[in-house]
Fold this protein.
Amino acid sequence: MMYAQNEELYLNDHNIISGQKSNYRCRKDYGLSKGYALCYNCFNAQNKLVKELNLNLHVPDSLKTEADKSFIFHDPKNGDYLIGDYKDGKRYSGFFKEDGAQLDWMIYSFYQAGVRLGQIYNDQYNTVASREDTQEAWTTLDSKNTFTNGILTSGITVSPIEMKGEGGSAELVHAIKGGQTVYFTLGLFAVNYGEFIKVTPTEQGYLVQSSQSRYQVRLSYNKNGRKAEIINTNGKVEDVINYQLYNLEDIAQADHKRSFIYIKKDDQLYIEQVKDNRQLVREDSRAQDNESSAYMNKIAGNLYTKRPLDKRFFMSLLTDKPGGMPDYFGQYVYYEGKAYGPIYKKGTLPGTYSMDVLQQGKIVIDKKYTVRNKTLAEIAASFKHGK
């Protein structure tokens, strides 16, 4: 029987595991023990926490360094295992397990003299994509994070995202190389459902991909608007959607017999309108495709401008509230010969805007739907609070 099945184990002064009483008694940490990988807290004779033991792992030689080799051991019954040493109750040297997010990420931080120098981890998304559902696949620490002066310079961060009332959960993986963003991956999870949406910044804009879609969307931007190219699995562009951007002062140039939206760009309000409604008809048809992704389409649709991406941005896009979309300031709709929605104009004070709301082509006379001389930040805050 593997020692790792025991509630308690023992370590000696040479960090050798035993099922018999020895120098350090190790108790199973149920909070950090996930799946195959088990974690133990080890105490000395005075019941003082002195070590952390992580079992049932596989660490390839390519990830080992001269500095950390003395904290990586192997036991036929427990596979590779990691040792971390505490000093005065704080992490001091060796490996310590971090809390994972939704997919129970196995991330182990390496310390020297109380300073975190790096991390090794199992890239869960690669494991899922490989469809290799074996113990070795799930417990192989195949990737690493590099820190410089305590700051992550290459690797990933994993952040949980709360989805209140959505019946599921989510997490955001931010990949960095040389201190710069390489991509973001949004993981979405529910009963019998899992989806990974990857957003990669490019020189022209973004590439948006989903594990649940046979399409991907390539976005590019210029001073006149944005372009969304719909690309199939063979890399062929199947369709293109062109969006025209208008200055607010040029609102008369927009087709008021078709819908348009108001967006924020460079702290200014603009109007965006699809150049040809036939493009939207084709897009609606694609949305009904079983191999399409509603969340991918929503993310791509709301990347109105080339903007910095962060957890807050993705979290806001997971809500259905208009105020949850950080660059979105409402939609004008033309239906059965009548206009509905907001009409903005520049305010009388610098940097401000005023807004009225149309209902069946007429302005609604109600302070609840009226904005006068407010900044975009103030308007966004009022949306957020349900105005």
Notes: The mean pLDDT is 88.
